[in-house]
Here is the input.
Amino acid sequence: MKGKKFGKEFLSFFILLTIGTLPITLRKPPIKDWILVYLYNAVTNVIIDKILTTLNVVKYPVRLFSKFFDISIVFDLFLYPFITILYNQLTYKDKPFAIFYKIFLFAVPILIFELWLEKKTSLIKWRKGWNWYHTLFSIILKSLFTRMIIGAIRRVEKHQERYGKKEAGTRETLESI
Here is the structure.
């Protein structure tokens, strides 16, 4: 299963799967939150993965657009941001404890999948002491941080809506006088 052709077809399949299911996932409101989660996650994934590949901590021997990217664009720009949307949708109204334990519903399968990819394919190779627990903890921390960012944005937005309504009500009262 280590063939280059298999690897590229495998990666192409996941791009098509993500692109095909993304419109269905984005239908659940609030859409702007999910788009923000996707974009934030994709951009930070690229930055972090670029650092890891530059330091030779992780290597992607078989990747799409290998002439342009040293990173795994499939995971960084498609798969993980998509999974992060699903996680944020699942925890949309949850309390902190539920947000924390539900991350394991996503992080553990991602870890198992990455372990399989690392052992059975040429799609990813860990180097310089990178182990499975680094992957697990980095996925957990990154996902929780993304969830924290979108939660903070929601609180600011609610505060602005409340403040904007009070201000509008004050203006209307002053104008009627």
User: Anything to note?
Assistant: The mean pLDDT is 89. Residues 4-176 form one domain. The chain has five helices and two strands.
